[in-house]
UniProtKB/TrEMBL annotation:
InterPro entries attached to this UniProt entry: Ankyrin_rpt, Ankyrin_rpt-contain_sf
Record-linked Pfam families: Ank_2 (PF12796), Ank_4 (PF13637)
Superkingdom in the source lineage: Eukaryota
Start-end of each ANK repeat: 5-37, 38-70, 71-103, 105-137, 139-171, 172-204
Name of the protein in question: Uncharacterized protein
Any Gene Ontology biological process: RNA processing
Organism in which the protein naturally occurs: Heterosigma akashiwo (Chromophytic alga)
Length: 249
């Protein structure tokens, strides 16, 4: 029996990793796709919380691999965001769509994997045709921007190799380089500059990567010289000033 919020024994068992309970419920014809009021199915919950064996059980029972919650999140979104590689692989084996977008920021699974710097998942999604230059909502942008904002330098390589536009701008005019500079991520800044990132591009507020790095440095000017953020901002400024070729900020 379901609660008023649509929570069923199967949903609870899948979310909490109770594999034997899931098996018994499925054997007694529990619907693998029955959602709660938020549209979460057992597969979505098991994928989110990393219960690989339960995900495989549900997929074997015919669970809808592309069901989306009322927020637009699929099992692939949840597993990609959380970094559950084996679950991502299981979902892709069942032809989970890499093109689905959630309905808050229109993010794909690739963008969510990039935000977490989940390199192997990024590569798996790209191998299945994920759109590397999909532009999500104003607070996100592209997968490259998501990786840069988190300072995930290693994740930038496969995205750039797949054709990510290094100087793409989101709806606020922000580039991946701006986000890396603003977050004080020197390795990400270096990788983006090497790929042709332009430190002179300005957003809608007339800020460039260089001016954002300067703002970061000034906001940390009272910090100890050994402070990591202060050290990172100095590296970023050196990179940008060296490669800016005299552009006005």
């Amino acid at each position: 029996a379901a609660t008023q919020r649509g929570e069923t024994p199967l949903l609870a068992a899948a979310m909490n990793g109770h594999q034997n309970c899931v098996k018994k419920l499925l054997d007694h014809f529990a619907s693998p796709d029955a959602p709660n009021v938020d549209g979460h199915t057992a597969l979505i919950l098991a994928s989110k919380f990393g219960h690989t064996d339960i995900v495989n059980q549900l997929l074997s029972s015919g669970a809808d691999v592309d069901h989306q919650s009322r927020f637009g999140l699929s099992a692939l979104h949840e597993a990609s965001s959380a970094g559950h590689l084996k679950i991502v692989e299981a979902l892709l084996k069942m032809n989970a769509s890499v093109k689905l977008v959630e309905n808050v920021e229109n993010e794909t699974a690739l963008i969510q994997a990039a935000r977490g710097g989940h390199l192997a998942i990024i590569e798996a999604l790209l191998a299945r045709g994920a759109e590397v230059n999909h532009l999500a909502g104003p607070n996100t942008g592209t997968a490259l921007m998501a990786a840069a904002a988190g300072g995930h330098a290693a994740a930038l390589g496969p995205l750039l190799a797949a054709g990510a536009r290094v100087n793409a701008q989101n709806r606020q005019g922000t580039t991946a380089l701006m986000l890396a500079a603003k977050g004080s991520h020197p390795e990400a800044v270096g990788a983006l500059m090497e790929a042709g990132g332009d430190p002179a591009i300005q957003d809608v507020y007339r800020r460039s990567a260089l001016s954002l790095a300067l703002d970061f440095k000034n906001s940390n000017s009272c910090a100890n010289d050994e402070d990591e953020s202060s050290f990172s901002s100095e590296i970023i400024l050196q990179l940008l000033l060296t490669m800016d070729n005299g552009s006005v900020i």
